[in-house]
Amino acid sequence: MAEDADPRLRDALTQIARSAADLTGSACAAIVLVDERRNLTQVASSGADGGFPPAAALRDAALGAVLDSASAGHLHDLREESGVPPGRRGGLNLVGTRVPSSPRAQARGVLFLGGGSGAAAFSSAQEKAVTVLADAAGMAVEHAQIVEREHRHHQLLETTAKVTRLLLKHDDPGQALHEVVRSGIRQVCGADVSAVFCAKDASDQLLVIAVDGLGLDKAPVTQMSSNSLVGRVLDSGRELLSEDLTSVPGYNPPEEWREALSVMGPGMLVPLVANTVVLGVLQVGWRRDSPNARNALSQRGMVCAFAHQAALALQHLRAEDERAKLLVLKERDRIASELGDSVIESLSAAELDLHSAAGLSRQAEVRRRVDAAIGSVETSIQVMRDTIFQTRPPSQQGGLPVWQRVLDELDSVCLACGIQPRLVLTGQLDRENVASAHTELAAAVHDTLTVATTETSTSVEVTVRVAETELVLTVTDAGRGVGEEIPAAKLSDLERRARSQGGWLDVRRADGGTTSIEWHIPAA
């Protein structure tokens, strides 16, 4: 009998074969079971003592004839047809009758009885006794199959309950996945290997989430190419079943798995779907020489049941990953907010004070040192802002600070006009209600400087003042007054910008040729 046979069924069939031999006076007896494709599954014999034809010979020479017959078959000199060595050939009377199979049973077979050399043919009474014993063998086989189905159903319920408990505990969804591939697929379905894959974000690779069997769990593989059968199933959402999975076009396992998986025959690739979304793929395989391989594809229903649980576990695993990422982002945002609200704000205020101090000083050495200090502060602020932008989500990452945009516009005008304006900044330019108008303010600084400065300008002062309710930009030219000489089109552009923000423009000319342009917008 095959090594994987149920010991209780093996003992029962052996006893039936022995009883058949005793009742008929036969020298030997054998019960041969096959599957629906007539592949040999089990053999139980009694009294063979080396003279009985081997199982393969029985299958090839007599099995088909007996199974296709409505009654017991009478065969003579079977060894002449079965390839038994010439030294063991001779007269052998052999009778065979079918082991009955119910519609639910997966196996059927033949009870063979053989007499010694030269023995007479079996009588009708002996044939009836053989038929009764064949019926008993069929009942034993069906009972064993019922017991096996019940045992597997119990295993299915037990594993399902265990996985469900793991998912409800919210401890480790990965453990639930390993329970599916190990206890579910391997033990209940009798598979030799099972694995769970899922797509890797923003990558053409597939992640190996769980794997068990054929030593693959010890191979250093964490991902595989999406250009494979697994990737095809993940994209299409359609399952794939094959009697020889390794021969299907597109089969492309990781190099580290190739040798171990070369023994695989039947296999399935089942998409893991949760809420109509394909989250991953469950791969199940059986060795070609495995006794379970004969009925591997008939396990589809049970594999799909475990696939549903694997999909839920994978969904929980993704939710846990998203939750962990969210916690990290919240912590980063907290750190970034604290830096932005306190440290950077203080540094920005200090830098603005230094800019104001540099404008007030007339000593070159003092201005040089202040400018150096300003450069150091700017570098520190930029490093901290870069760090904040890396920790905050893209949706929360802003552009340059308001004061930096103002300085950039000043530098731009300085290069064009060859003059260094004096900058005075008062108030908090990085306040949220001010930062919302940073684009208009920067453009207004550029346009106002362009309008106010002339070739004869001796000094230009730029003042940006942030009050509780308004933001005021003032550009004062201490050289040749501009007055009515300012082109109306340029003034209208400045006025339009102010009005678009709910503000206004004011141009004043003082004694001594000094002209001031004030640009007002609400700050709240």
Question: Which key phrases capture this entry?
Answer:
524 residues, alpha+beta, Beta-Lactamase, Heat Shock Protein 90, five-stranded antiparallel β-sheet
* Average residue pLDDT: 71
CATH-defined architecture of the largest domain: 2-Layer Sandwich
User: Any idea what the CATH superfamily of the largest domain is called?
Assistant: GAF domain
Largest beta-sheet characterization:
6 strands, antiparallel
| Count of separate DSSP helical elements | 13
Count of the separate structural domains: 3
Poorly predicted runs are: 72-93, 393-398
Return Rg in Å: 44 Å
**How does the overall form come out from the CA principal axes?**
rod-shaped
Strand content: 15-25%
Assign the CATH topology of the largest domain. Answer: Beta-Lactamase
Topology pattern, helix = H, strand = E: HEEHEHEEHHEEEHEHEEHHHEHHEEHEE
The count of strands amounts to: 16
At the first level of CATH, what is the class of the largest domain? Alpha Beta
Please give the order of strands in the largest beta sheet: 8-7-6-11-10-9
Sheet/helix structural class: alpha+beta
Q: What's the end-to-end separation, in Å?
A: 91 Å
